[in-house]
Design goal:
single chain; alpha/beta; Multidrug-efflux Transporter Regulator, Chain: A, Domain 2; Rossmann fold; 2 domains; two-stranded antiparallel ribbon
Length: 292
């Protein structure tokens, strides 16, 4: 069974840890266990509860009222929310709840319903993108079972590839980028999302994909002369050395801007070549894409 910290609940729900602690003192809907050192821990059921409570509270329900609801009443009220943003959050929360429960049939069905209603492009931007932002930290901290992560990411991978295929082909290669992940890195979801966003912007993508030796990157960079090189690093093999990788990456071409993102490098304190920039989150990456 997966165990979550109060920081995990904050990341996934958007409710500050301080607020969650106050709610625990005043209300009964959360009953965390504590370790021998008095640290709060939460299970999957409590994660689902905080998702429900945070959504209802955000859209007008008082906490004192929510506290008196049964789980069934909470779900009924959530389904009655009809604001556009509330509907999106309801779907994202639903995906998180199905993932932690390993209900992957329902996980995919919710995605497919939204795709049927809004189309694949809007689903990627409105659902897949924020879902990845919210659960990414859980995957990095190993607070989600690897089976949960693999099942969810494989479904999302299929939807992203479908979305990429449905976008119009980009014929003009004057503005192009290279996307890759280093040797030992196989977590492709973040990179595929960037591929989708770039193609949607009309930028030609040279997609090298996962587990790419730097010599192959250097070869393609020399031929294509891209606008920039993008690399997303999530969780490479234990043999991966970030310092050495960044040093060698900077030596490939000091004339080509390189953009790095991913949780692995958010706290990187080493030296960067002038052409290398670090963007921690996918939101920051999206800001760069929009100005291309």
């Amino acid at each position: 069974m997966s165990i979550y910290s109060i920081k995990d609940l904050e990341q996934v729900s958007g409710i500050k840890a301080h607020t969650i602690r106050i709610w625990e003192q005043r209300y009964n809907f959360l009953q965390p266990l504590r370790t021998d050192t008095n640290i709060r821990t939460y299970n999957a059921s409590e994660l689902k509860v905080i998702l429900n409570v945070s959504l209802l509270n955000k859209y007008g329900f008082k906490i004192s009222h929510i506290d008196k609801m049964t789980p069934e009443q909470m779900e009924e009220k959530i389904l009655s929310l009809n604001q556009l943003d509330a509907v999106k959050e309801r779907v994202i929360n639903g995906l998180i709840k199905e993932m932690v429960s390993l209900n992957m049939g329902s996980f995919e069905m919710q995605l497919d319903i939204y795709i049927g209603q809004k189309g694949i492009e809007r689903t990627v931007l409105e659902i897949v993108f924020p879902f990845l932002e919210r659960v990414g930290v859980l995957w990095m901290t190993n607070h989600v079972n690897p089976a949960q992560e693999h099942l969810a990411t494989n479904i999302l991978r299929q939807k992203l590839i479908l979305g990429i295929e449905k976008l119009p082909a980009v014929l003009n290669q004057d503005k192009n980028v290279i996307l890759f992940m280093p040797e030992g890195e196989h977590h492709e979801i973040g990179l595929l999302l960037v591929y989708f966003l770039l193609k949607q912007q009309g930028v030609f993508v040279n997609y090298l994909g996962a587990n790419v030796p730097l010599r192959d990157l250097a070869f393609l960079n020399g031929i294509k002369k891209p606008e920039y090189i993008f690399c997303h690093i999530t969780s490479p093999s234990k043999l991966f050395k970030l310092d050495r990788f960044i040093t060698h990456l900077g030596q490939i071409s000091n004339a080509t801007p390189v953009l790095l993102s991913g949780q692995l490098i958010k706290d990187y304190k080493g030296k960067l070549s002038d052409n290398i920039k670090v963007k921690i989150s996918l939101t920051e990456v999206l800001q760069v894409i929009r100005v291309l």
